[in-house]
Amino acid sequence: MKRKPAGKKYNDDFKKTIVDLYHSGSSVKELSSEYGVSEVTIYKWVKDFTPISSEKGAPTPKELAEIQKENLRLKQEVEILKKAMAIFAKK
């Protein structure tokens, strides 16, 4: 069984540049034809790299998802440490 090609990989700087161009007035169709990136992909990047609010330093949806993932991991670590502390306190 053959695997489907993974497709092109773009770094975050390139993605942010495309999003900045979109916000400066370029249409998705223009950007798609000029840079060879599908329109659907550009819309996804716009969603991922546009801040949630207009405040400076507001997280993007992608950054927010990363923060939530790290928060979950840290909560799990705390629970493990609490259980270990209880075990050692009994000894």
Could you walk me through the main structural features you see in this protein, from its secondary elements to its overall organization?
The chain has 91 residues and is mainly α. The chain has one domain: Arc Repressor Mutant, subunit A (Orthogonal Bundle). Helix content is 67%, strand content 0%. It has helices at residues 12-23, 28-35, 39-49, 61-90. The protein is elongated, with a radius of gyration of 21 Å. The N and C termini lie far apart (56 Å). This is Mobile element protein.
The termini sit apart by 56 Å
Total number of domains: 1
Helix content: 55-70%
CATH class bucket:
Mainly Alpha
Q: What is the correct CATH architecture?
A: Orthogonal Bundle
If you compute it from the alpha carbons, what radius of gyration comes out, rounded to the nearest whole angstrom?
A: 21 Å
InterPro entries: Homeodomain-like_sf, Transposase_8
Protein name: Mobile element protein
GO molecular function: DNA binding; transposase activity
Pfam families: HTH_Tnp_1
Concise account of the structure shown:
The protein is mostly helical. Helix content is 67%, strand content 0%. The protein has one domain (12-90): Orthogonal Bundle (Arc Repressor Mutant, subunit A).
